[in-house]
Design goal:
By secondary structure, the chain is α+β, with helices and mostly antiparallel strands. The protein is about 20% helix and about 45% strand.
Amino acid sequence: MSVDPGFLAKFDSLPVGGYGGTAYGKRWRVTKTVMAGGRSQKLEAEELGGTGYVSMNLYRLAGGAAILKPCEMPEDEVLSFLAALNID
């Protein structure tokens, strides 16, 4: 899926590394990893004390576009989670 600029801005605002956050009124452990000189990025989030889990890859193409690849979950679930996420 090609990425909407609002999603990309929110994703880019997240720091690299591991940290806490809140989404849907619940606490989450979030990890953002950068690979291949920034051309590939991964976001994983695990609900603390619950069963929630979000995982996605983002690929940056040479022309400046980005492609979102959720990991075994609907794209809408990833989009909704990132929109709801507030980091500490």
